[in-house]
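Pilot study result, target chain (203 residues):
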Amino acid sequence: MSLVLVDYGAGNLRSAANALLAAGAARVEVTSAPERVAAAERIVLPGVGAFGACIGAIRAIAGLEEALGEAVRAKGRPFLGICVGMQLLAEEGHEFGVHRGLGWIPGRVERLEPGAAALKVPQIGWNSVRAQGAGPVEDGWAYFVHSYALRAATDRDIVARIDYGGAVVAAVQRDTVLGVQFHPEKSQRYGLGLLARFLAWRP
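Predicted structure:
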């Protein structure tokens, strides 16, 4: 199985690669080459930073967005987006302006607005993930670092939530596309379990 971790200058690649190997991957190819992404059998898109900067970095690499679309949308390869890598699946992000996303999951990314004054933004720390439906995401405790969250247009795409002064989307899934707001590579046993299930996933 060829597993590609997409390098577009906006992810903690070493930690993600090490976690994938610990979860059972035989090999992780870290690349920004569109032809390697298009040929991959599984793809992981990490993300750290602001929505606009991340989607801009992808589009600055000629052919990368098209290669992602070819592999995931046309060929149906399993895909995992992590943190901002999940947010980029939305139609648009509202962080430091309005930016067009990949548009694979209908909805938009907006700033967290917890209903309790004691809850800070960004949310940093552990939270209880409540899963719903079948798929790689299960109940458990995961580590989050984010100020923005995806507001999916339809509940059908939401496969997990957390409570942070109100319900917040923790994971989305549509066809062969999976996105998680938390960091599996920082979520210890729970995160490694999620990655192992993604590696074995046959959507």
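One observation from the pilot: The radius of gyration is 15 Å. A full batch analysis is planned for the follow-on phase.
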